[in-house]
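Hey, weird one. I pasted the DUF1161 domain-containing protein sequence into the form twice and got a warning about non-standard characters only the second time. First submission, copied straight from the form history:
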Amino acid sequence: MKKLMVALGLLSLASGAFAAGKPCEELKGEIAAKLDAKGVSGYSLEIVDKGAAADAKVVGTCEGGAKEIVYKRG
């Protein structure tokens, strides 16, 4: 659980830097690589329209803020 919180904290900080129009697939790959490097497993990342993340944690924004990348456990 501690690893997850650290990883999500880092991703939250990083997401602001990537919000300036980065392609979603590229950002999703970078986030996945960071999670994998931290040893996080059993998760999924999904690209959704902004505001559509009902039961997931937003870990990044892309395409100029029009889309969000959400993290789900399991």
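That's the output from the first submission. The warning seems to come from a hidden character in my clipboard, not from the data itself. The CA atoms of residues 5 and 11 lie 10 Å apart.
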